[in-house]
Amino acid sequence: xxxxxxxxxxDIDTEDAVEEILEACDAQLKGIEPAAGVVFCGxxxxxETVLKLISQRFPGLQLIGCTTDGEMSSxxxxxxxxIVLTLYCSDTIQIYAxxxxxxxxxxxxATRDAVQMATAGLDGAPKLALVLPDGLSSNAFDVxxxxxxxxxxxxxxxxxxxxxxxxxSKNTYSTYQFYGDRVLxxxxxxxxxxGPLVYSLGVESGWSPIGEKMTVTKSDNNVLFELNGRxxxxxxxxxxGDVMRENLAGLGSYPLAVYEPGLERFxxxxxxxxxxDNGEVTFLGEIPEGAQVxxxxxxxxxxIDGVRLSAEKALQQYPxxxxxxxxxxxxxxxxxxxGTKTREEIAGAGEVLGSSIPIxxxxxxxxxxxxxxxxxxxxxxxxxxxxxMGEA
Length: 392
Hints:
This protein is an alpha+beta fold. The protein has helices at residues 14-29, 47-57, 107-119, 140-151, 233-240, 243-246, 300-317, 332-338, 344-353, and strands at 2-9, 36-41, 62-67, 71-73, 77-79, 83-90, 94-101, 126-133, 157-160, 177-179, 182-184, 187-194, 197-204, 208-220, 223-227, 230-231, 256-259, 267-269, 271-275, 280-283, 292-297, 325-331, 359-364, 367-370, 377-380, 384-391. It is globular, with a radius of gyration of 20 Å.
């Protein structure tokens, strides 16, 4: 038996919101005690109170979670500054939580600690890792390397970088990771699944490459210096015109498709800063030397199409008869691009997956999942990741 329940509240009072969620969970659980849970929470709530009340209601619950830039679920649709609680029940699938601290300064140790903590309770081999690293302090590439080293290359790693509400006049941000009744920063929390779990993934964006592919001839982590031996900014000036020199904020609307050697499919990188004079461009994630890149573009309807493609791919590749739950991870960049159409993401996923599959997810500071089947997880920008889970 594998049962998943989802509850969603946007009540502005912390205790009232949690009470509403717990009542909704109790009504769905009908006396069954959950084994594990994930809570996605807006930044305006009293997070310690949220975790304390959930842990009091479900003692021993393997609980993780994080702050978000928006929440989504089949229960409450799309919200900003709400709470979504997902509970997993199973008498065959084992689910244990772990956490590691210092994800920014020592990601290898943080991921090793999180994995060791979670796998200590497992009887069998890990099947899947759901991960929520700090979206500000940690380098996703190093964190994912840490999980691969700790779990081995055959265990899929899926999740999202924890986030903060973006918008308005706000210019400083903080993200938090949850473990049990603890609120942490600069940490990475994880749920690791074992046993007869089956799953599938869909990773799509809706952005389309245009123009020729160019080779990264000089880069350093997330700073791109040269393409085909020429200043990197020349790519944007060539396709978008010199107006980009006066409106650098527009660069983020045209992510780079990155094709690593050996991979046929690309992942996206969004530019966050540029220096037209020396030609360098800084991105929200690493761009390796030797990779090929293309500039991309999308209109709003194509962004929504990316959601449907993600859900359809996950559904088509699901190896069981019927998924028990779906988790979705979407990007702050997608939310900014969609504006008032943001709610169409969860609506589109729901139309593809159907009303019988509970859906939960959040808006991230970067998504985590493979580029294609049987490849290790990558850090994505402006991408929609769909994870389907069930029992074999």
